[in-house]
Specification:
- It holds the Pfam family Exo_endo_phos.
- Keywords: Endonuclease, Hydrolase, Nuclease.
- It is a single chain.
- This protein is 19% helix and 32% strand.
- It has 5 helices and 11 strands, in the order E-H-H-E-H-E-E-E-E-E-H-E-H-E-E-E.
- The two termini are 30 Å apart.
- The C terminus is likely disordered.
Length: 260
């Protein structure tokens, strides 16, 4: 029987619950200052995350003034009962903000690598390698790409080159571009990855019209199902995917150990 894994990617907007465009103006102060609603919202997000094996987070704070000094990746790992977690700080504006990507995992990563993406400083990818019983690794990368077209094109080229290093690869996160992006389509075409679905619209969460969030997998991995989760606790909706490893390939089993 083929081994399956359930994945989720979620841009959580540092725990801010946006419900309309005007919130970007009238709640903009929440990106700078603490607010008790943030922790309540993170608790609700953690309830959703419990259903998944590996979760990629974008726009989490690593512990600063605005998050009441809570490392949000660690908080979601504890509340979601994940034994392994890792956060990558990409823009450190301490003590005011620490912009990060986050990884939550039930299987234990064999190795975690931080990549600094090309373009202006502040964009990165955290990549976790999970050991497989055929001697290879399943690599899962979590990204949050740039808003600007030129920087994003460089970052997509970088990801395309990375696909050559891993026969089993998952890339997930907020790509800040949809199916209409030539750069994204070129990257998918060159790498042979699949999972790009124009119907999986995640932004804005209150009226999703753009598919900015994606989970892409390399060819040996099968996509069993993919969907947008109707869980509007950020300005993005989360996207989920169930994947299946090839016949005879399985994640090595690890004992439950303390979180990373």
């Amino acid at each position: 029987m083929r081994q399956q894994l359930s994945l989720l990617s979620y841009n959580v907007q540092v725990g801010i619950a946006s419900r309309q465009y005007s919130d970007y103006l009238f709640q903009s102060w929440k990106h700078l200052l603490p607010h008790p609603e943030r922790v309540v919202n993170l608790g609700r997000i953690a309830q959703l995350l419990r259903q998944f094996d590996v979760v990629g987070l974008q726009e989490v704070d690593a512990g600063s003034l605005r998050s009441s000094n809570i490392d949000q990746t660690r908080y979601l790992a504890v509340q979601g009962d994940f034994p392994h977690w890792y956060r990558q700080v990409n823009r450190n504006l301490a003590p005011f903000a620490q912009h990060s990507n986050g990884l939550l995992a039930r299987p234990r990563p064999a190795r975690i690598i931080e990549h600094r993406l090309p373009g202006l400083p502040g964009r990165g990818m955290v990549l976790a390698e999970f050991a497989l019983d055929d001697g290879e690794v399943l690599a899962i990368g979590i990204v949050h790409l740039a808003l600007g077209w030129n920087a994003r094109r460089l970052q997509l080229d970088y990801l395309s080159r990375l696909t050559r290093a891993y026969p089993y690869l998952v890339l997930m996160g907020d790509f800040n571009c949809g199916c209409g992006s030539r750069g994204l389509r070129d990257m998918v075409s060159r790498s042979g990855m699949r999972g790009l679905d124009c119907e999986l619209k995640t932004f804005p969460s209150w009226r999703p019209r753009h598919n900015l969030d994606h989970i892409l997998v390399s060819r040996p991995i099968e996509v069993v199902s993919a969907r947008v989760v109707d869980y509007a606790l950020s300005d993005h909706l989360p996207i989920s995917m169930r994947i299946e490893l090839p016949v005879g390939v399985r994640l090595l089993e690890f004992p439950c150990e303390p979180a990373l």
